[in-house]
Structures are given as C-alpha cells and as structure tokens.
UniProtKB/TrEMBL annotation:
GO terms assigned for molecular function: serine-type D-Ala-D-Ala carboxypeptidase activity
The protein, known as: D-alanyl-D-alanine carboxypeptidase-like protein
Domain Peptidase S11 D-alanyl-D-alanine carboxypeptidase A N-terminal stretches: 65-304
Annotated binding of substrate, by residue: 273
Length: 322
C-alpha cells in the first residue's frame, strides 16, 4: 500500500475537561506548536537514545481506502521514523479506550512520581467490585514499590494497581484524572477526557485513535516505559500488611509477547497495551520496528473479539513486513 505523508490539519477542538463543555478552536499553526519537541525519533531505540523530533498529522476528514481485512471501528498504522501514515480509518472518532487508558496513567507517573517510592494499598484499591475487572489481587495494607505497581498495571493490566497509583500520586482518583487530562492536552490530545486511571467503563471517559497515538508516541521517549512494555511475563515481589514477602507471577495481555500470536517475518514487537470492555470492544496499541530499524505505531480499536483484534493487528504489521 502506498505510503502517504499527511500534514494537513485545519483546526483542533479543545475540550476543557467536562463532557458537556463548550469547544474552543485552535488554529492549525498553534495546534502544531502543542506537539513541537514532544515527538520521538526512535531509530536508536535499543540504545535508548530517544529525542523529540516531529509529528505525523492526520486531517480530520481523511480515511484510507476501505480494506475488508480491517473491520474494527478505528485503526491506524504510522511510520514514526519517517513521519508517514500508512493506514488510517476513523482515527478522530470519539471512542472508549478501555485499558489503553493506562498509558496515560504511565505518562503521569513517569513525569511526576518517584518510581522508588513505596505505595500502601488502600481499602478502595483493594475492593474493586466491577464484574470482569482484571485484578492483581492486592490486599489493603500491602506495601509495593511504585515501579512494580506500574509494571503490574502495564503488563498484567491490573485495575487495582491503577487505583493504588492514582491515590499515591495525586491523593485521589479524581485528582489523578485531572493530572492525566492536563498532561495529554500538553501534547495535543485535546479530544480526550479521562475520569479514571484504568479504563473501566464510564460514558464520559473517552478518547480518539489519534489522541492515543500522540500519548503513546510521547511515552516512547521514556526508557522505563520501553523496558516495561516489552515484558511477556513478570514476577512481582512485595510485602503484605504483616511484613511477609509475597510473590506473584503475571503474564502480559499482549499475545505477541507471550507467543500466542505470531509476529510477521522481519518485524520486532517492542510492546504495547491492550484494552477490553463490553462497550470498548477489543483494543490494542503497539510499537514495532522493521528490519531497517524503522519504528511504527499501530492501533486497532473496537474489534469484535480478541482473536479478530490480533488478526487485524497482524494484518497491519504485514503491510510493513513486505
């Protein structure tokens, strides 16, 4: 498929943080300034030599020609190294992000917190009762290093880890959500409204595929983030409320990292984040590189099943493996 560089964006609508807020229009030039010096050249990603460079901008009315192999509600494939859009479909449509929300949580932690601090699990964090919510199983009073909580959040997608992080960093979930929204708007993700650190469903908790690209692209500057998202499994060691050592084994929710899904020849998966709820469907954002060390961000939102999600993501990766 022919690659396109898309650098046409006339306006961006700035949300103030409430779902029913009035909109303000930012001129094209000012919207680009939001991104200046915030995006990444990842050609030396294995050495961690990451630095801000440039941005791939996708116009609001652009969609690639329809591809019947890509039937999710939104999908995206960007060559980050060359700032080229290879495939784009409905990337400006408001959608529910499910646990991909946790990348924004990671951004706040990496910018504002000390990963060596110890976090005490609260009653609130240890008592998530929503049906189907994935939990690490932490108990009230458990003592866990913040970096380990962040790893549990991103690798295993534990929602209790998200609550514990939010309360430790900001004092409450709502205050942490304010920090999330503030940070993502700094990098231009202005069509996003986060209400929690984990992505469990709320009708007023939403984003777009393009905003998720901006957030994920920003995070690839952080070596700590790259070191975490590449893990296929993780052993967590912490202390319970009596001081006794506890060990837990967590596997990644990313099938590429566990070997449950095959990566196309010539492609290396660097890691990413999955998300699944009934209303969000099956979702995945991924960083990968080709045989020439060019880096890509790919995204599939609202696939109708996990199997179909990874089928579509593999199809996107095959576009760059040829």
């Amino acid at each position: 498929m022919k690659k396109r560089v898309l650098c046409v964006l006339l306006t961006i609508t700035l949300l103030t943080g409430c779902s029913n807020s009035s909109d303000a229009i930012i001129p094209y030039e000012d919207s680009l300034n939001l991104h200046q010096n915030n995006l990444v050249n990842l050609s030396n990603i294995q050495r961690g030599d990451l630095f801000a460079k440039d941005l791939t901008v996708i116009s609001k009315d652009f969609n690639s020609p329809k591809d019947n192999n890509l039937n999710s509600l939104s999908s995206l494939l960007i060559n980050v190294t060359d700032q080229e859009t290879i495939y784009s479909n409905n990337v400006h449509e408001r959608l529910y992000p499910a646990s991909i929300t946790k990348i924004a949580t990671a951004l706040v932690v990496l910018k504002h917190a000390d990963l060596t601090e110890t976090v005490t699990i609260s009653k609130n964090a240890s008592n998530i009762t929503e049906a189907g919510a994935k939990l690490c199983g932490f108990k009230e009073g458990d003592q866990i290093v913040l970096k380990d909580l962040l790893t549990s959040l991103l690798v295993y997608s534990g929602n209790d880890a998200g609550i514990a992080i939010a309360e430790h960093v900001a004092g409450s979930v709502s205050a942490f959500a304010d920090m999330m929204n503030e940070e993502v708007r700094k990098i231009g993700a202005v069509h996003t409204n986060f209400l929690n650190p984990h992505g469990l469903h709320d009708d007023d908790h939403y984003t777009t595929g393009y905003d998720l690209y901006l957030i994920f692209n920003e995070l690839l500057q952080y070596q700590e983030f790259l070191d975490i998202i590449k893990l296929g499994e993780y052993t967590l060691t912490y202390k319970d409320n009596s001081g006794k050592e506890v060990k837990k084994e967590f596997s990644s929710t990313d099938r590429y990292l566990t070997g449950a899904a095959n990566v196309p020849k010539g492609i290396t998966v660097l890691g990413g984040k999955t998300g699944t709820t009934f209303k969000a469907g099956s979702c995945l954002i991924l960083a990968s590189k080709d045989k020439d060390d060019k880096v890509y961000i790919s995204l599939v939102l609202k696939a109708d099943s996990s199997d179909n999600l990874f089928y579509q993501m593999t199809y996107l990766l095959e576009l760059i493996s040829k």
